Amino acid sequence: MADAKIIDGKAFAAGLRARVADGVAALKASHGVTPGLAVVLVGEDPASQVYVRSKERALVELGMNSFDHHRAADMAESELLALIDHLNADPAVHGILVQLPLPGHIDSQKVLARIVPEKDADGFHVVNAGLLATGQPGAIVPCTPLGSLLLIRDTLGRDLKGKRALVLGRSNIVGKPMAQLLLQADCTVTMAHSRTVDLPGECRRADILVAAVGRPEMVRGDWIKPGATVIDVGINRVPAAEAGKSRLVGDVAFDEAVKVAGAITPVPGGVGPMTIACLMLNTLAAACRAAGAPVPEEAAQGMAR
Ligand SMILES: NC(=O)C1=CN([C@@H]2O[C@H](COP(=O)(O)OP(=O)(O)OC[C@H]3O[C@@H](n4cnc5c(N)ncnc54)[C@H](OP(=O)(O)O)[C@@H]3O)[C@@H](O)[C@H]2O)C=CC1
Ligand SMILES: Nc1nc(=O)c2c([nH]1)NC[C@@H]1CN(c3ccc(C(=O)N[C@@H](CCC(=O)O)C(=O)O)cc3)C=[N+]21
């Protein structure tokens, strides 16, 4: 059998960013509003700094305002909550992103809950999770699942009805919202996790397999149904062959899977760039809602806007 089609998330994300840039220009022209995202980073975690920098770069490229709030790792939780209150009240800020993970002395759930749902660009607030789960208008959809769904639709077409989907991982930021989106798209959805019996067998039934476990190359080639669409969300840094260097791998053993799957996302260059492009899309959508302008269809994914 021929090797799988490699889904080019980097290229799709570039196209999406261009559509967002057009939307930003249109909103400026029609309503005089420039979308703005506040990015809050607490501490000096090197990986977080890399992600935050690429978000800030993308914002500027797309003509949006970037408000950076970098704070020391030992800041008090009360100070962070006060910063969120300030950003909630600032009309130039349409989206707020608090980079995770936060230092251990800060309660992440408490901080995420403090963001007003309309400005929750990540879609992590319980109100947005609830709107998504109940299929109601105005939900802000978490960026990684949204980006994954856009890649799935680009690969298989808009109509996903009746397809068997397996989501491996049940976190609040990836697995659960991914399953909700696929359910909304009329897939038959199974969620697997660390207590699942016969993980390979569950995976082998899936037409669409989304892996979000954070275990390097855990999903093997013989876990994959021939012809399946495989979305690898995992970002794992592992030691490279060359001493002292590291490389990124996904949750799927790519070299094996590419021989079995119909289509597969690489790591890097798959879901990662989509996460950032969707953050830009969510910020634009939040600014549109605040201004009373139409919300881009891509941000709503067939749900009521
Ligand atoms: N591309 C991107 O933009 C992003 C990538 N990521 C990456 O996606 C991956 C998942 O992230 P996230 O959802 O935050 O991770 P979490 O650690 O929050 O969740 C991992 C999930 O995988 C399950 N799991 C862990 N080990 C196993 C196992 N051996 N067998 C079966 N299930 C297992 C856990 O099960 P249980 O619930 O039972 O413990 C849990 O539900 C990571 O590699 C992360 O780096 C994350 C966000 C964005
Ligand atoms: N509030 C919050 N929201 C997030 O969305 C969030 C977060 N916190 N904390 C950390 C995770 C991780 N994350 C990634 C974003 C982009 C890439 C990405 O672009 N990856 C590139 C490679 C980058 C590299 O080379 O390191 C790729 O896959 O091609 C990866 C991971 C967002 N996260």
Automatic annotation (TrEMBL):
Keywords on record: Amino-acid biosynthesis, Histidine biosynthesis, Hydrolase, Methionine biosynthesis, Multifunctional enzyme, NADP, One-carbon metabolism, Oxidoreductase, Purine biosynthesis
Superkingdom of origin: Bacteria
Taxonomic lineage from the root: Bacteria, Pseudomonadati, Pseudomonadota, Alphaproteobacteria, Rhodospirillales
Annotated EC: 1.5.1.5, 3.5.4.9
KW Amino-acid biosynthesis (keyword) present: yes
Gene: folD
Protein family membership: Belongs to the tetrahydrofolate dehydrogenase/cyclohydrolase family.
Catalyzed reactions: (6R)-5,10-methenyltetrahydrofolate + H2O = (6R)-10-formyltetrahydrofolate + H(+); (6R)-5,10-methylene-5,6,7,8-tetrahydrofolate + NADP(+) = (6R)-5,10-methenyltetrahydrofolate + NADPH
Gene3D superfamilies from the UniProt entry: Leucine Dehydrogenase, chain A, domain 1 (3.40.50.10860), NAD(P)-binding Rossmann-like Domain (3.40.50.720)
Pfam family membership, one: THF_DHG_CYH_C
Sequence ranges assigned to domain Tetrahydrofolate dehydrogenase/cyclohydrolase NAD(P)-binding in this UniProt record: 142-289
Assembly information from the UniProt record: Homodimer.
Organism in which the protein naturally occurs: Azospirillum picis
Function: Catalyzes the oxidation of 5,10-methylenetetrahydrofolate to 5,10-methenyltetrahydrofolate and then the hydrolysis of 5,10-methenyltetrahydrofolate to 10-formyltetrahydrofolate.
Binding-site residues, NADP(+): G169, R170, S171, I235
A single MF term (Gene Ontology): methylenetetrahydrofolate dehydrogenase (NADP+) activity
Span of domain Tetrahydrofolate dehydrogenase/cyclohydrolase catalytic: 7-122
Matches recorded under PROSITE patterns: THF_DHG_CYH_1, THF_DHG_CYH_2
Listed pathway(s): One-carbon metabolism; tetrahydrofolate interconversion
Protein name: Bifunctional protein FolD
